[in-house]
Specification:
668 residues, alpha+beta, Nuclear Transport Factor 2, Chain: A, 24 helices, 32% helix, NTF2-like_dom_sf, Beta-lactam/transpept-like
Length: 668
């Protein structure tokens, strides 16, 4: 009996406690609901917080799945939902709705979205639970959104920025080309497919695949391949085939083609690897991206930012779409280079497709006026998607048109001699007017050199050999003796003053010039070889041109630039030579052309001065190796352009004078 009374008492206590327990208020419930909302816990919101009317109007998929998909598709981040708190003394009547202003903020792929909506809670009984429940509709996703509406997103593609030369001439522009295609009902001769495929560099299977697309109809034009505007021969041949036509289409154009190919680079479809690297930068699998050259270097400046617009598509007729968020398109930047496109083309043409490189600088500013790697390739061909067969053809070409020669470094040969002379004169060991008696074709310091001897090409040079004669006759023995007189330490220090061993800050990375593999000179024989640009010495063509600037500026060498908006006349080195040394060298370099062995540069159109050079590339076991020919030159009467040029394998073409003639052609 006693136990029964205890049990009854316990039940009474529980009932009493339950009666005293405080019921959840509408504010408690909306606070919990918003907490789940901010966390994206839509299933929890649907199951435990929506009122009966909402669940009757919208099933779980319409509420949960739709909101999740919208968040993913629109890349919604930083969702922040808050509500306006009611007064502290607010009283709630279960017979009446409870309203709360709710503020919603978020970031979307098209920019921020912010709005306020009034949210209502109703007191209802769900099963055995009495509580406040949220009355919901799609306008809490975006204002004015209704159940049957669709959320759309439009991408407005940014125009890629163009690349222009210093005078505004187009180097890489958004121009046009041609879509070559077939009108099926007019293309009646099946045998012509093979002919067309061969013309376009594609397969018959790819033509059939495009003609078999679901949208194709007999009367419709079916694009098969794109061709550059300049490929007139292929276009003309294609449209002669009955049923084949060509239509204009927007396209990146490279008007100077091969002449500027290694400078401009080209654009191509983004690869899977590139897309993975740039997945946070807004790229898509359909985008094109800069490949090599300035197209690659300037990718961020040229690309621009696509515009994006999120909008609500109302199915009812006559109702205008509603914009939710919009990010305006930002077209890419137009960038001008310091390049003079016409000088570039003249220089490229003058090189006649021979393997080599050339750089032309403004000696008073350091601006790069021409930068040639010969032969080049057609960037239009690459931009359109080069076939494997064609790429292999270029890759196996013995002249290697895909290799960028102006970024590489080469033994400069005798073009180094004015620099060697300048170092000696500034050190006081070389007296320009003092002659040295040199007899014979070879010379060695003493018997310690063993079999090594310095050779000269013109033993007929008159004695005594002074600096002017030594430059006119390009006398290796004279410069070897001068280097030995000044000594290893002085010569190496002088070369470093001229920039050897330093990386040049340049948009298109250049290999640093080197004194030797170790950056030092280890023997008297190596010192002799290095004095006339052989041994292990290497220099890139831009630096080689830059090294002649002090002879035109009385001692100043400028940082070479390629972007027109970059500051001009940035001093890289100064005090390299005195005005007297510079004048002496200018006189001698003019005599090299007038009296020496650069007669092909002795033209009426310009008073060219400069220095030739031949670097022998002897392979082991050869009596005579391949030779690279050099010429560095400028117009002595109007030194606005300083040009360095190198042509490979000139041993059978007259040596460096062959190069001098090419450079002179550019000046004409």
């Amino acid at each position: 009996m006693k136990k029964s009374w205890i049990a009854i008492a316990a039940v009474l206590v529980l009932v009493l406690l339950a009666g005293c327990q405080q019921q959840a208020t509408p504010e408690d419930r909306i606070k919990e609901y918003i907490s789940h909302w901010n966390k994206g816990e839509f299933a929890e919101m649907y199951e435990n917080y929506l009122n009966d009317g909402t669940k009757g109007a919208y099933d779980k998929a319409q509420f949960v799945d739709r909101q999740k998909k919208i968040q993913e598709d629109l890349n919604i981040e930083n969702l922040e939902v808050t509500y306006t708190e009611p007064p502290e003394d607010a009283e709630w009547n279960e017979e009446e709705p409870a309203d709360f202003p709710v503020q919603v903020k978020m970031d979307t792929v098209a920019g921020p979205v912010e709005f306020e909506q009034n949210m209502t809670l109703l007191h209802e009984t769900h099963g055995e639970e009495e509580n406040w429940f949220v009355e919901w509709n799609p306008s809490f996703i975006f204002p004015q959104l209704e159940a049957e509406d669709k959320i759309q997103i439009d991408r407005i593609q940014a125009a890629r920025g163009e690349i222009l030369d210093r005078n505004g001439l187009a180097l890489a522009i958004n121009g046009g080309g041609f879509n070559v295609g077939i009108v099926p009902e007019k293309f009646t001769d099946e045998s012509k497919k093979a002919e067309l495929a061969k013309l376009l560099g594609i397969t018959v299977e790819s033509i059939d695949q495009k003609l078999g697309q679901s949208w194709v109809k007999p009367e419709l034009f079916v694009p098969i391949a794109k061709l550059a505007r300049t490929d007139t021969e292929t276009i003309d041949a294609a449209i002669k085939i009955p049923g084949v036509a060509a239509q204009n289409t927007p396209m990146r154009e490279y008007p100077y083609g091969a002449a500027l190919s290694h400078v401009t680079g080209y654009i191509g479809s983004i690869t899977a690897e590139q897309l993975e690297e740039r997945k946070d930068q807004g790229y898509t699998a359909n985008d094109q991206i800069g490949r090599g050259g300035m197209e690659g270097v300037l990718e961020e400046r040229l690309r621009g930012t696509d515009g994006l617009k999120i909008w609500i598509d109302k199915p009812a007729e006559g109702i205008e779409p509603i914009t939710v968020a919009e990010k305006p398109v930002e077209n890419g930047e137009t960038v001008q280079l310091t390049i003079d496109a016409e000088l570039q083309k003249k220089t490229y043409d003058a090189m006649k497709g021979e393997p080599g490189t050339s750089a032309a600088l403004n000696p008073k500013t350091g601006e790069t006026l021409a930068l040639v790697s010969s032969p080049g390739f057609d960037p239009n061909e690459f931009m359109l998607g080069i076939s494997g067969t064609r790429y292999k053809e270029l890759e196996e070409d013995p002249k290697n048109p895909l290799f960028n020669r102006f970024r590489a470094a080469y033994a400069p040969g005798s073009t180094l001699k004015p620099v060697t002379a300048a170092i000696g004169m500034e050190a006081g060991t070389l007296k320009p007017a003092e002659g040295i008696t040199i007899n014979g074709k070879t010379w060695q310091k003493d018997a310690s050199w063993g079999d090594y001897k310095v050779s000269r090409l013109h033993p007929e040079a008159p004695n005594p050999v002074d600096l002017n004669i030594a430059l006119v006759y390009s006398d290796n023995i004279y410069f070897a003796q001068q280097a030995l007189n000044m000594g290893n330490e002085t010569f190496v220090a002088g070369l470093k003053e001229f920039g050897f061993g330093e990386e040049i800050e340049f948009p298109l990375g250049l290999k640093a010039s080197q004194i030797s593999n170790e950056g030092t000179i280890g023997s008297a024989g190596q010192l002799a070889d290095t004095s006339f640009g052989q041994g292990q010495m290497l220099t890139n063509i831009v630096h080689l041109a830059s090294m002649y600037e002090p002879f035109l500026t009385d001692g100043v060498m400028y940082k070479p630039t390629l972007l027109l908006d970059e500051e001009d006349s940035q001093v890289w080195k100064e005090g390299l030579v005195s005005a007297e040394t510079a004048a002496t060298l200018r006189t001698a370099m003019r005599n090299v052309v007038v009296d020496g062995y650069a007669q092909s540069a002795n033209i009426a159109e310009a008073d060219l001065a400069g220095k030739t050079g031949t670097a022998e590339l002897k392979a082991a076991g050869e009596d005579r190796g391949k030779e690279n020919g050099f010429f560095v030159t400028y117009d002595a009467s109007n030194p606005e352009v300083l040009m360095a040029m190198m042509i490979e394998n000139v041993e059978d073409n007259g040596g460096s004078d062959y190069v001098a003639g090419m450079a002179a052609q550019a000046f004409k």
